[in-house]
Amino acid sequence: MPQTMKLALLDDYQKVALRMADWDRLRKRGVEITVFHEPFASVEDAAQKLAPFDMLGLLRERTAFPRALIEKLPNLKFMVLTGARAASLDDKAAAERGIPISTTPGGTSNAPTAELGWALLMMCARDLAKAERLARQGKWHDGIEQMVVLEGKRLGILGLGKLGSRAARYGKAFGMDVVAWSQNLTPEKAEAGGATYVSKEELLATSDFVSIHLALSDRTRGLIGAADLAKMKKTAILVNTSRGPIVDEAALIAALKNRTILHAGLDVYDKEPLSADHPLTKLDNVTLIPHLGYVVEESYRHFYEGTIKDIEAWLDGAPINVLNPDALRKA
Fold this sequence. Notes:
Blueprint: E1 5-9, H1 24-27, E2 31-35, H2 43-50, E3 55-58, H3 67-70, E4 78-81, H4 91-96, E5 101-103, H5 111-125, H6 128-136, E6 154-158, H7 162-173, E7 177-181, H8 187-192, E8 196-197, H9 200-206, E9 209-212, H10 226-231, E10 237-240, H11 249-257, E11 263-266, E12 286-288, H12 297-315
Parallel strand pairs: 1-2, 1-3, 3-4, 4-5, 6-7, 6-9, 7-8, 9-10, 10-11, 11-12
Helix pairs in contact: 5-7
């Protein structure tokens, strides 16, 4: 390997990466580290700025890495992805180039995302984002629309895995009636997860709050469309802390404009970061937060420590946590 290797750490929006781990471990091995704090404007912009780098540290799915971008990076030899997977990363395209991708799985609780989802649900129930803005403007209660108590209401959970089960427990603690549905969920699994199994149609039609806790896949992309939103109560609140494309964005915007549903709380979007002129930003019955589910110090420290360990292993010729093992056969 060359004397100096160039590493780019991407999308450090909060400018915290360099104090979250001991990067001197890599510098002592001749690794030159550059941190990018802003999102890239396009594939072409990313390709131009990342062309000199041998290694990339990707923070979750903040920058998408399709084949078109991977093929424009002639010096790229190794990538680290924080977390265990990313639908926006073309690991097969990297494997064809002989570029292994290591991940940083395990080690952190899913509590940060679950807690954030519950906080967002409560914000929506009492219109707290708008209330905070009004208080700053001296308008006090003028303009606050919903005053919804959780106790006694029905919480419908789409996806009752680790995150969904936490949401179910939170709902129970607040005295809610908790129901759940997903493609593979059974009544027995639902009961074990703290919920009652119902059909998707019943969940949408009867729930006062619908909270999404599904992984994005071909099966879940566009799972909630216009017809699904139309089945929901006009007083219903939809919360999505999973992935934006699970809900048809255009259909959701129309439903909010038409007051088909009361309110939505969103932490995730089709394209991130959300632009200031996006149609969602013009609506007053949606609470928007900037994909903060995993954004806590504990997660960052785990991610970046794992990044260093993955790079050290690759530099030693024995990569670990490899997402695309076919790449090793081409190296």
